[in-house]
Amino acid sequence: MSKPIALLSVYDKTDLLDLARGLDAAGKIRDAGIAIEDVSDITKAPEMLGGRVKTLHPAVHGGILARSIPSDEKDLNAQGISPISIVVCNLYPFTETISQPNCTLANAVEEIDIGGVTLLRAAAKNHERVSVLSDPSDYTDFLKSWKEGNGDVGQSLRSKLALKAFEMTAKYDEAISGYFREQYATGAAPLAGHVQRMPLRYGANPHQKPAQAFVADGQLPFKALCGSPGYINLLDALNSYALVKELQEALDLPAAASFKHVSPAGAALKVYAVDDLKAPLTPLASAYARARGADRMSSFGDFIALSAPCDLATAEIISREVSDGIIAPGYSEEAFKILAKKKGGKYCVLEIDPTYVPPPVETKQVYGISLQQLRNNCKIDAQLFENIVTKNKELPSLAVTDLIVATLALKYTQSNSVAYALRGGIIGLGAGQQSRIHCTRLAGGKADLWWLRHHPTVVNLAFKKGTKRAEKANAIDLFVSGEPLEGAEKAEWEGRFEGTIPTLSEAERKEWAAQLDGVACSSDAFFPFPDNVHRAKKSGVRYLAAPSGSVMDAECIKAADEHDLVFAHTSLRLFHH
Is 523's pLDDT higher than 80? Predict the structure, then answer.
């Protein structure tokens, strides 16, 4: 039996001599008295082009790729090529080179390994017969298996080494494509056209630099018409647009959302008119006014998503609000002129391709670990709420609409989450709580305050001239919450109002709260205890939706029957992280 041939072609020579001694094969190695041949002795062709071509030759790759089958062995014999059993190869330090501050494009190009990647892929492809060593840290274990197996390390080890080689070449190619994406496919905001990569000022926090948004194939599905989006802006923009797009698809009405920190502060359709605004509103403008009005405190500095092209009426509402940006499938000329003036011309205006469909599989990285899953592509429609488990089974069409709105909002809300909706809009959302009852209480509390803001006394509060909208929203929030104030804080609050500040007695508050009715409540997972049902009822909930699966399902249904509620088991969990 002929002695196995090992091909060694490395940049990093760590422990190479020990490996060669163990194999009695080649390298530096000539100085150590080990018998070797140069690649050119095999190819009968000299190294050329300043070292760019060394191993790219049929004598090399035929020897690596040949299988242990008669036809391949016949081809090798005909060409006088010997099979190669071991390939030891690592690559030029491309990543290290481009990380140098003085790296030029020419420097980067010269560190792109061609022959080495080809050797690794060829050997890894033929790992049924060939062992490929791409990492010096594997040399010791390989030699141990080599000796114990009398020259055969076994298929299990060859498979593991092949996977490592494939991962190395993939990572290497990713580094190269990332570098050239930055050089050739990056647009500086504002972007007149679509690009593949967009540099960001920083990541989630200012110290997290560099940061970028990119796609590996094609072009980014959005472009910046004005301003420069940040990392969190894009998290909000893309999640919020997915929500409003699904809302319009599900209910065939224009939809809007107000997002903060990757959860909706509000989301709504134009189902009912907004009666507290003087200007005539389009359906889209009405949807945004209702979305923004769900929780004005949380919407301060929001990112806005619209399911339809932004019109003049919607832009005029947005122009009055403190907001970080907007994403929509288009803008009328008049609307864009208004939005482009916000924040001194720095307001972020993103236009997204409405035909864009994200890949079916999504990947995220946490602490260096890649997690991959099928994108949450479930459809939320009326059929989801057909399994009514309570005695009361009267679920009117408007309630179904509210359940769809609430449930779709949960699909894009940080879990655990519970949402309350009324008349086609969110009125309270409890997001990101570890306890289900705390979600229900938080959402219910927000719904209660939303309703109290509609009390005639609150609607008619008189503010001093010059009081800003954000100051009014904060003053109203303190008024309806009844939070005790004292000292300078109380004086500042009182100073916002014109004349005597009216009061709302506890009896008046209770009387008004009792009029809130017909609310729909949806949960992203099952209710573990009936306390959630009891708490929801206190905020005017008449329609419930949640997955089944709790050991307390029967008790929750019993609580719903006690209040004559309609409860639909959806059998669909909607965790979002």
Answer: yes
pLDDT at residue 58 tops 90: no
CB atoms within 10 A of CB 70: 8
Q: Find residue 568's DSSP bridge partners.
A: 388, 545
Give Cα separations from 78 to 59, 75, 157, 271 (angstroms). Answer: 12, 5, 31, 79
Three-class DSSP category at 543: strand
pLDDT tens, position by position, 304-337: 999 999 999 999 999 999 999 999 999 999 999 9
pLDDT for the residue numbered 507: 96
Q: Do residues 359 and 375 make contact, with C-beta atoms less than 8 angstroms apart?
A: yes
Count other Cβ atoms within 10 Å, centred on residue 276: 10
CB 352 within 8 A of CB 338: no
Q: What is the DSSP letter of 48?
A: B
Distance CA 385, CA 396 (A): 11
**Is residue 25 within 8 Å of residue 6, measured between CB atoms?**
yes
φ/ψ of residue 305, rounded to 5: -125, 135
Residue type present at position 373:
Q
Which pairing describes strands 369-374 and 361-366: parallel, antiparallel, or unpaired?
A: antiparallel
Which residues carry out catalysis?
Answer: 125, 261
Question: Each residue of 131-149: pLDDT tens digit?
Answer: 999 999 999 999 999 888 8
Task: Give the pTM.
Answer: 0.81
Does the bond joining 190 to the residue before it have cis omega, within 30 degrees of 0? yes
Cα dihedral across residues 333, 338, 343, 347: positive or negative: negative
